[in-house]
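Incident log, structure service

09:12 report received: a user says their structure output differs between two submissions of the same chain.
09:20 pulled the input from the user's history:
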Amino acid sequence: MTRSLKKGPYVDPKLLKKVQGKKPGETGVVRTWARRSQISPDMVGFTFGVHNGKDHIEVFVSEDMVGHRLGEFSPTKKFFRHGGKMQKELEQKKKEAEVVAAKAAKAAATDAKK
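09:34 re-ran on a clean worker, output below:
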């Protein structure tokens, strides 16, 4: 559910205080735990270290991100892979393709030397 228009966007006051009056280039990474804060136009150009529960993930804010939340760009779960027989077959085919490509590149390099 979206926030009421009469209330306006939520930006954490501490985060806003860290950004106000500073230029994007002069400050380094602004570390924050305020994942629920919306990105305002004042924040464009800054790099935020958004906490994902374990680490701070660096997020460079661009104009396209205005209106989104900081937490959207810092995933909390790491996708490893789907398991099963089908996945193993796909990985094996991928490795074989890499080996063939490496052999072709090596052959092309030796032909170029001659």
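09:41 both user submissions now match this output. Likely a transient worker issue. Closing.
09:42 reviewer note: The first helix runs from residue 13 to 19. The chain has two domains: 13-73, 80-114.
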